[in-house]
Design goal:
The complex is a heterodimer of chains A (112) and B (116).
Chain A (H helix, E strand, L loop, with lengths): L4 E3 L2 E4 L5 E6 L6 E8 L3 E9 L2 E5 L6 E5 L5 E5 L8 E8 L7 E2 L3 E5 L1
Parallel strand pairs in A: 2-11
Antiparallel strand pairs in A: 1-3, 3-8, 4-5, 4-9, 5-6, 7-8, 9-10, 9-11
Chain B lengths: L2 E3 L4 E5 L4 E3 L2 E3 L6 E7 L6 E7 L7 E2 L2 E6 L4 E6 L8 E11 L2 E6 L3 E6 L1
Classes of the chains: A mainly beta (112), B mainly beta (116).
Amino acid sequence: KAGVTQTPRYLIKTRGQQVTLSCSPISGHRSVSWYQQTPGQGLQFLFEYFSETQRNKGNFPGRFSGRQFSNSRSEMNVSTLELGDSALYLCASSLTGPTEAFFGQGTRLTVV
Amino acid sequence: AQKITQTQPGMFVQEKEAVTLDCTYDTSDPSYGLFWYKQPSSGEMIFLIYQGSYDQQNATEGRYSLNFQKARKSANLVISASQLGDSAMYFCAMREASYNTDKLIFGTGTRLQVFP
């Protein structure tokens, strides 16, 4: 079966712009989580959506937001981009939560 | 707060040999789950193996096994018969679940390089 699909794979944006990243989970999976990976901070949890509701949220500023659609696809939005937002953004899907979450290949965002 | 520690930034192993990647954790919860993920240069995090805190047996998945020592709070990943394709970053993770959160927390990772 198809895995977790993230689009786009690469993005270059300038400071102050906003960006939207997309994640299509494995068919049947209702939980979608987002993580930010940077060399300095490692992997950090952003938020999790389950059945269109944000269930968990990490310690990120309000510029980071997300949503989930009825087909479980999720989008993550970052407004007013800063240089420090440059990172690999990973999406993970699972049936119920973090247990045995399956990750996509990530979107590599570069802010210049 | 829960914490995952991976003390080996990098490891080298010869093809066909076994290698152990270290992971220690800290939690006060009696129920928890431990995971290992592989991240090749492509970026995708690949789930390898899971160990529940109440599991009596060490988890195994093919060439991967988890050496779970609960009293020492360690969950080391053992890769038997290393292959060149095993070269990647390896992350140990723990599920952190409470009344207001349910997420994975990750260690800093170990870069494994397999040489012929």
